Amino acid sequence: MSELQDKDIINVKDGKNIGKIIDLDITNDGLINYIIAEPSSFFRFNSFNKETNIKFNQIVRIGKDVILVELD
């Protein structure tokens, strides 16, 4: 989890930076339902930017520096 928290989350559809992982929703079986992302500190002050829930199947790739996701 700590390694994932350092990575920026980028939406591949529009190139926007979603933020960083702040939490995970995990099933009783230990599977990840979704990740919870919070906008980076610069964008956090905008009242329109709240936490984003990203389903595990929306993750396209986890790279060295970023996590690529496909959100509508």
Would you mind describing this structure in some detail?
- The protein is mostly beta strands and 72 residues long.
- 11% of the residues lie in helices and 46% in strands.
- It has helices at residues 2-5, 41-44, and strands spanning 8-11, 17-26, 32-38, 52-55, 59-62, 66-69.
- It has a 6-stranded mixed sheet with strand order 4-3-2-1-6-5, with no helix packed on it.
- The model has no long low-confidence stretch (mean pLDDT 88).
Residues in helices, as a percent range = 10-25%
Mean pLDDT equals 88
Coarse morphology: globular
The Rg value, from CA coordinates, equals 12 Å
Structural descriptors:
single chain, 72 residues, mainly beta, 11% helix
Helix/strand layout:
Blueprint: H1 2-5, E1 8-11, E2 17-26, E3 32-38, H2 41-44, E4 52-55, E5 59-62, E6 66-69
Parallel strand pairs: 1-6
Antiparallel strand pairs: 1-2, 2-3, 3-4, 5-6
A few lines on this structure:
With 72 residues, the chain is mainly β. The chain contains two helices and six strands; from the N terminus they run αβββαβββ. Strand 2 (17-26) and strand 3 form a beta hairpin.
